[in-house]
Amino acid sequence: MSEIVTLGASQLTAGFRQRTLSPVEVMCAVLDRVTKLDPVVNAFCALDEEGAMSAASEAERRWMRGEPCGPLDGVPVSVKDLVAVAGLPTRHGSWTTSPDREMADAPAVARLRRAGAIPFGKTTTSEFGNKIVTDCPLTGATRNPWDTRLSPGGSSGGSAVAVALGMGPLSLATDGGGSIRIPACWSGVVGFKPTFGLVPAGSATSWTALSTLGPMARNVPDAALMLDAMTHETLNGGSVTGGWSRYAGMLDDSIAGLRIAYCAAPAGISVKSPIAECVGRQASTFAALGTRVDETEVVPLADFYGDGRMHSIQWSVFFAQRVRHMEEADRTLLDPDLKALADAGAQVNTATFADALFARHALAASMETFFQHHDLLLTPTFHCGPPPVSGLPAHLRQAPVLTAWCNQAGLPAISVPCGFAGDLPVGLQIIGPRGSDALVLRAARAYELARGDFPAPTGELQLPGDMEIAP
């Protein structure tokens, strides 16, 4: 991997400020990287090379004048293809959508642009973000950067792979049940799901009432910097330490004295031994940082995993609603997994759906009580490794058990690489109460510093001879 594409956002802007790097040089390196690697991993479904190079030239002129427009000026960012980017189509991974270019950015993208970031391409997703692997009839399957025979997870798999392989340091993704954290875990990057509603989604992106937008990056400071940009309507100058910086500016504060709960696996969840052992070793890291770590069961989750299928019920109903007005000709174009999900949702009666919503409210209230006694919760991000490309095995068709409940309760949660199970990365999930986004990021950064640098995949990729990317 060339040196430029290994640099994070803050390193890039430092180079721009010192004039040892230029935005044009960086954008060229990123686009060259995409040209080299994307034919193998299929992380991108659309690029705006001309627009990106023009924006990079403008950013370069601003840096040469010493007048950056914001803290991300000239930094490339990719955007999951569920989120609108002006000048590019939003296909949602579906043949049923329009190929016309968007006239305006989604709110979060607009804020990233105002901070100087350059949205240069759209990343792959499962159709309408319906499942935890990234394959769909429109764009085919996306591959894991550590082993191309495997899935990177989903539905933000394209974003995770792009970041992992140096095809841009930042990506904007969405998470409706684990869609940021799961591919971050399986691809070895950082993925943060903020408190519900913190990042403006716009009506087109929040239709499930469970999904929220969040950053993916190779390190926690870059994720925090991106979150700062997306949660502020105006930015004054290029300093990342100004008064507007609620997240990046507090990362170095101590976490000593925090009360941290560690749950290796909620009741009834079988976590693969290598993953459990890898995550279990991280508790001692937090103890060494001066926190009080208590291994405990998370009692409020018992109903979620027991008889309360709250996430699966809501998810299926929302997708039934999403496709109910489609013409029959369009319905025949849908991913069979999505059709099965929507058909299941169409069979849910009003009482069952209302029960699921009540269970959601009860879980959120119970977790508020839980976090009166604990500041943060540590769990594995996922209980097993990634499945083969393509398809979704039967044992992974239920709601992702360690991540989806955070969406139900609206909690902030981050996945940070914490080691390997065999040759594949493992994710540590750090969860906090609603509104504790800064604390979650601070704890993740403290852990990241204690852990040390995490390796990146080599980029020496080969497409398995018996498999194709094209649908």
From TrEMBL:
GO molecular function: aryl-acylamidase activity
Catalytic class of the enzyme: hydrolase
Top-level taxonomic group: Bacteria
EC number per UniProt: 3.5.1.13
Pfam families on file: Amidase
InterPro entries: Amidase, Amidase_CS, Amidase_dom, AS_sf
Positions of the Amidase domain: 26-441
Key words of the record: Hydrolase
Coiled coil: none
Family in the record: Belongs to the amidase family.
Designated name of the protein: Acylamidase
Origin species: Paraburkholderia fynbosensis
Upper taxonomic lineage: Bacteria, Pseudomonadati, Pseudomonadota, Betaproteobacteria, Burkholderiales
